[in-house]
């Protein structure tokens, strides 16, 4: 399998405070990688560095062979990010938001209109297409933000606690959206605290603790969600999270 994302000796400090320590990581095309870890382990910082939103203090990141520091513009068109921040315009309708982001990515008009309809169907907001985002609940904004992140069919999708704010039905809908992405077209990296769901949907699991990767395994080597929970506790129990 081809590598889509490589980190070499990545470290990050805020002032004198080290958050990530010497991370080496290679993610192959088609993988669905979960990043687990206690509060303050450095998960969001790692995803921000992977997705060009933050720079490492040391080391380098490559996406599809492009060095992120030298070529962030071409890299950004290949990636999508779903995080706590929805990056939506409140004064625009759902459809106008998606049209705005689609145009920003240079998607042609006919393709874009079809894509907007398809995504609004998928996240079950087609009935609210013409309503302003300011009238949406938090969960609805999160669902629209999921559609926004997929508008340009990114090769690499970063998800930082994407279930935040979603009710049970919306979470299941979102699982379906993720499942429907062709793994060969979209590699996924997800920060989450939900071990049971991670076991169900991810193909590889990393555990981050104290700014280091303390566990990295294909999910197929782990027998059950219970076993993954035990592994998690054994890997984080000796460390105090900050
Ligand atoms: N902009 C910043 N300036 C200073 N310190 C920061 C900044 N962002 C994060 N940190 C610190 O870096 C450490 C790691 O934070 P990070 O958000 O990456 O953790 P996390 O594993 O995602 O945690 P959580 O599970 O709570 O979301 C924490 O100690 C945090 O206080």
TrEMBL record:
Keyword Transport: yes
InterPro entries: AAA+_ATPase (IPR003593), ABC_transporter-like_ATP-bd (IPR003439), ABC_transporter_ATP-binding (IPR050763), P-loop_NTPase (IPR027417)
Pfam family membership, one: ABC_tran
ABC transporter domain: residues covered: 5-235
Stored SUPFAM superfamilies: P-loop containing nucleoside triphosphate hydrolases
Gene Ontology molecular function: ATP binding; ATP hydrolysis activity
Keywords: ATP-binding, Nucleotide-binding, Transport
Family: Belongs to the ABC transporter superfamily.
Name the UniProt record assigns to this protein: ABC transporter involved in cytochrome c biogenesis, ATPase component CcmA
Organism expressing this protein natively: Methanococcoides methylutens MM1
